[in-house]
């Protein structure tokens, strides 16, 4: 890995909200502070959830908040051939198996210490899909153990068999899972630094295992706290998070404060002034090493 390269990869399921902004601000500041590039990718591989108008709205919202990306905006839906190639490589290694487990069967699986259902291995011996049956394809994790250093959260360790089990890389509807798509995307784009919300921290070991199996470099990781509402739910479209439709400078400053970053001596006059300060003053060591924090008033 040479020059720093970060990325922001929102799903086009609705407008950006404060939680999205926090991740975007952190990623944008981190890449530009390092003198590197910041890429924008629309994670629309799950076409069943994507909204046709959301991608354009996301791009416009980021631009309104003064964010600058390098190159064209990439869409996962245009990259299925690359996921096909990665899937074929894993199959060639004998790392995949066809899973016919129902939702009810999976719901009865034991919970890990982190509260995640652990796949019980029921279909692990099945190398081929039964004729006429829609199957999910899972990665056989074996005794894989992963430890990595997160730039905010510290050392993270996971024994995949005990904590997750064999996980899905292609769903029964034929769509590729987030874990596989994101690994291929980051490798193809030579991403060196993944900066995102801590709700994705627990899935990072799965991505590292895939990187190793596919011969990809592992980027550095930085997971920022996610914003939660008064009920303790992560801000999301599903929990009714408010869209970013107000003063962009106020929103940027609030996100900066949420990340406990050094504040400017005076209120920035516009988004460009904000970013001049933010890119210069970015200090990841000041970010609270926690998974979640309450959303500031007026943004939930």
Describe what you observe in this structure.
By secondary structure, the protein is α/β, with parallel strands linked by helices. It folds into two domains: 143 residues, 3-Layer(aba) Sandwich (Rossmann fold); 146 residues, HUPs (Rossmann fold), CATH 3.40.50.620. Helix content is 31%, strand content 17%. The chain has nine helices and twelve strands. Strands 1-2-3 form a three-stranded parallel β-sheet, covered by helices on one side. Strands 4-5-8 form a three-stranded antiparallel β-sheet. Strands 6-7 form a two-stranded antiparallel ribbon. Strand 1, helix 1 and strand 2 form a beta-alpha-beta unit. The longest helix has 16 residues. The model has no long low-confidence stretch (mean pLDDT 94).
Number of helical segments? Answer: 9
**Name given to the CATH homologous superfamily of the largest domain:** HUPs
Indicate the percent of residues in helices. Answer: 25-40%
* Cα separation of the termini: 38 Å
- CATH architectural label of the largest domain: 3-Layer(aba) Sandwich
Roughly how many Å is the radius of gyration? 20 Å
CATH topology of the largest domain: Rossmann fold
State mean pLDDT (0 to 100 scale).
94
Instruction: Note the main sheet.
Output: 3 strands, parallel
Counted beta strands = 12
Structural class: alpha/beta
Order of helices and strands: EHEHEHEHEEEHEHEHEEHHE
Into how many domains do the coordinates divide? 2
Report the principal-axis shape.
globular
Low-confidence stretches: none
Please give the CATH class of the largest domain: Alpha Beta
Taking strands numbered 1, 2, ... along the chain, how are they ordered across the largest sheet? 1-2-3
């Amino acid at each position: 890995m040479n020059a720093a390269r970060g990325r922001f990869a929102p799903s086009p399921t609705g407008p950006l909200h404060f939680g999205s902004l926090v991740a975007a601000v952190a990623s944008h500041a981190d890449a530009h502070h390092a003198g590197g590039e910041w890429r924008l990718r629309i994670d629309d591989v799950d076409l069943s959830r994507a909204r046709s108008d959301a991608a354009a709205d996301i791009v416009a919202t980021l631009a309104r908040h003064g964010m600058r990306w390098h190159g064209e905006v990439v869409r996962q839906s245009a990259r299925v051939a690359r996921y096909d190639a990665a899937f074929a490589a894993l199959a060639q290694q004998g790392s995949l198996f066809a899973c016919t487990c129902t939702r009810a069967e999976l719901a009865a699986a034991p919970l890990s210490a982190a509260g995640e259902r652990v796949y019980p291995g029921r279909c692990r011996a099945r190398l081929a899909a039964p004729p006429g049956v829609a199957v999910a394809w899972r990665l056989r994790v074996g005794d894989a153990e992963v430890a990595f250093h997160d730039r905010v959260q510290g050392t993270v360790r996971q024994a995949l068999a005990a904590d997750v089990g064999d996980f899905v890389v292609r769903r029964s509807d034929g769509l590729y899972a987030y874990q596989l798509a994101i690994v291929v995307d980051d490798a193809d784009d030579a991403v060196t630094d993944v900066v995102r919300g801590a709700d994705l921290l627990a899935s990072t070991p799965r991505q590292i295992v895939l990187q190793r199996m596919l011969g990809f470099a592992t980027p550095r990781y930085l997971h920022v706290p996610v914003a939660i509402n008064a009920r303790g739910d992560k801000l999301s479209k599903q929990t009714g998070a408010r869209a970013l439709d107000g003063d962009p400078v106020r929103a940027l400053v609030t996100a900066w404060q949420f990340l406990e970053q050094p504040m400017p001596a005076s209120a920035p006059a516009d988004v460009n002034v904000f970013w001049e300060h933010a890119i210069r003053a970015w200090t990841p060591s000041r970010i609270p090493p926690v998974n979640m924090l309450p959303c500031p008033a007026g943004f939930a």
